[in-house]
Design goal:
By secondary structure, the protein is of the alpha+beta class. Helix content is about 60%, strand content about 10%. The protein contains 23 helices and 9 strands. The protein has a 6-stranded mixed beta barrel with strand order 2-3-7-4-6-5. Helix 5 runs antiparallel to helix 19 and helix 9 packs across helix 21. It starts with a helix and ends with a helix.
Length: about 625
């Protein structure tokens, strides 16, 4: 449950003492970690289900193949008088021995990962420069029980399903079993050699239909999850978030409404001429400024009563506020947000555009009851004063907006928080207020080739500016650490490098697990198919088929396999990717989706190579002996 849902539940279940009583619901660290890593619990659960499904398909296919390989042996046991119950106990004992060895090896591998690998990943993800994560790793028996229980259940379930067919067969039928049931074939017209080889490869492909379907589904799941992991790792890692939230350089002024009472109207913190010098640096491509001013307002203003109700002010006083000018592009983006969230009755955007109204931007400071009452504030007048209180302007309140609400536009602001009165106005509205204009923040992008040079020059210029301001205000503490602070996106990316690398390692591990399971499924199907067809290969060679033609037929089988899996990935797999995009985009604003064409191309090339090379390698081992020796072996 996220914090917003928790708040709604509490407001419904708990009786309020007054309208100002408010619940603050935060997100659990687990919730935040899963959302940052995978886009949500449901996405993570889907990935887990796909992994478990791949494990099920792999184990079921292996056990089915194992049962088929031993059908004739079980048939001989049945002819000697072995009952169905005895045969089942034999199979279950064999499976138990396999399960015991597998679980022991799995527990050893899991413990090794928990001791050596997981702490390192956690340190890089969440404890960078905070110490070791080894103390956080605690043995959790339920995880071990679940892991072992899942493996045991799937293995025995797959064994039971595969064994039902064997036990239901008659002894003579089982003894004569060769792995294929006779099917009526349509008579084919004679054709050229190339067509015959393709037809032969197609028939062989669908000979073991059940195994073929399971292997294709497993490979398709592997490819789809591989592409999904690539999309999530590139769209959700901190690189995407940092790119979304920041331009190449950000220069922030330290002046805020918290200390505005100490300012004068003519005091300049971020000189416009200095801002222009920064923008004149070579390589600057685009820039955006946050500007506005400081002023005062009476605490008795009815339009602000909802915002100030929780402050419990006993006497009327003048409170400092900060007002930010919304440029046309930001104003239109805010208007779209109000329309999409159906807040038109609570926010009058027309009055803001006309320069008559201001929006009260709060930091989740209103209870549900106060949010409803804020409708009453729309259109109410308020007197706004300069810092010296020698100038005043009457404007109307155009509504309240929560800066922390989901989907709120990614607009840049100056210092904001629960204890700051923050107003938003249009350019016409700010001109009407008559306050001295101040620059709060300057963000700009540069050409990639110029970034190192601009960074060095901007650092020197900001340091020199801070030293000059400190000399002008030697007794003012706010100038002690520097009135301007510069932040470079490249520094943020460097600081997040370990987190980004570790998240990609985890996603890469998920991809490797799925690809390995799909590959093992394919190898098992191919190996058992070629092993069962040894006699067939020998007969075909004895009838004149060359080994070169045989290899071509096997290569065609691998190509058909690859084409089918590629087609399913491009259709069904792409549908999954676009569905995931819609789901994650609704939750995480910085998520960027781009179809992983490069990863798809690499995956398809790897798939074709595997599906062609592995059958050739396995076929080479099955035809080492001469045709006569192989025919004699199977006679």
């Amino acid at each position: 449950m996220d914090g917003e849902t928790a708040e709604d539940r509490l407001y419904q279940d708990v009786e309020m003492t007054d309208d100002t009583q408010q619940f603050f619901g935060g997100n659990a660290l687990t919730y935040s970690a899963i959302y940052e890593f995978a886009g949500g619990f449901d996405v993570a659960v889907i990935l887990a289900i796909v992994i478990f499904a791949g494990a099920w398909l792999l184990l079921y296919n292996i056990m089915s193949i194992s049962m088929v390989e031993h059908v004739r042996q079980y048939g001989l046991l049945k002819t000697l008088g072995t009952t169905k119950g005895q045969l089942a106990r034999i199979v279950y004992r064999q499976t138990s021995w396999i399960v015991c060895k597998g679980c022991l090896l799995g527990m050893a591998a899991g413990m090794a990962m928990m001791v050596f690998i997981v702490p390192k990943l956690l340190e890089n993800l969440y404890l960078h420069e905070f110490g070791s994560a080894s103390a956080m790793i605690a043995f959790k028996p339920w995880i071990l029980v679940f892991a072992v229980g899942f493996g045991v259940f799937v293995t025995f379930a797959a064994t039971s399903l595969a064994m039902m067919k064997v036990i239901s067969m008659q002894p003579i039928e089982a003894v004569k079993f060769v792995g294929l049931s006779a099917r009526r074939r349509k008579k084919q017209k004679p054709g050229n050699q190339r067509f015959s080889l393709a037809l032969l490869a197609c028939r062989n492909l669908f000979r073991y239909r059940k195994r073929f379907v399971i292997a294709v589904i497993s490979l398709t799941l592997s490819m789809t999850v591989f592409l999904s992991a690539v999309v999530l790792s590139t769209g959700l890692d901190q690189t995407a978030q940092i790119e979304y939230d920041n331009q190449d350089f950000s220069i922030m002024c330290g002046a805020s409404a918290m200390t505005a009472e100490d300012y004068t109207d003519d005091e300049i913190h971020f000189d416009p001429d200095f801002a222009q010098e920064l923008l004149d640096l070579p390589g600057v491509t685009e820039a955006e400024t946050v500007d506005g001013g400081f002023g005062r307002v009476k605490s008795s203003e009815t339009a602000l009563s909802m915002r100030l109700a929780s402050w419990k002010l006993e006497h009327e006083t003048f409170l400092p506020f900060v007002v930010q000018t919304l440029h046309d592009d930001v104003l239109e983006e805010l208007a779209r947000y109000v329309e999409e969230k159906e807040l038109s009755e609570m926010v009058d955007m027309d009055a803001v555009r006309a320069g008559k109204g201001f929006i009260v931007l709060h930091y989740h400071n209103l209870s549900q009851a106060m949010e409803e009452k804020s409708r009453e504030a729309v259109g109410q007048p308020a007197q706004l004063f300069s810092l010296a209180k020698d100038r005043k302007t009457q404007m109307e309140c155009s509504g309240y907006l929560d800066f922390t609400a989901k989907g709120f536009p990614n607009m840049m602001t100056t210092w904001n928080g629960p204890s700051i009165l923050y107003f938003l106005v249009s350019e016409e509205g700010f001109a009407r207020m008559g306050l001295p204009e101040r620059i709060f923040r300057l963000d700009f992008n540069v050409e990639s080739a110029s970034e190192p040079l601009v960074k060095a020059q901007a650092d020197r210029m900001v340091s020199a500016y801070n030293r000059a301001q400190k000399k002008l205000h030697p007794a003012d503490l706010q100038y002690e650490q520097g009135i301007l602070e510069i932040t470079a996106k490249s520094d943020l990316l460097t600081a997040a490098r370990d987190y980004i690398g570790s998240s990609r390692v985890i996603m890469g591990g998920i991809c490797l697990v799925l690809l390995s399971m799909g590959l093992l499924n394919y190898i098992n199907v191919t190996l058992t198919g070629l092993t069962a067809r040894r006699k067939e290969f020998a007969v075909m060679e004895s009838l004149g088929m060359t080994r070169k033609q045989l290899r071509k037929s096997i290569v065609l089988e691998g190509i058909f396999y690859s084409l089918i899996v590629t087609g399913l990935t491009l259709t069904a797999g792409s549908g999954v990717l676009y569905g995931m995009r819609q789901l994650v985009n609704q939750r995480i604003a910085y998520f960027t989706f781009s179809y992983p064409w490069a990863a798809l191309l690499c995956g398809v090339m790897f798939l074709f190579a595997i599906c062609i090379v592995i059958p050739l390698v396995l076929q080479k081992k099955t035809v080492r002996d001469s045709v006569i020796e192989r025919l004699r072996m199977y006679t």
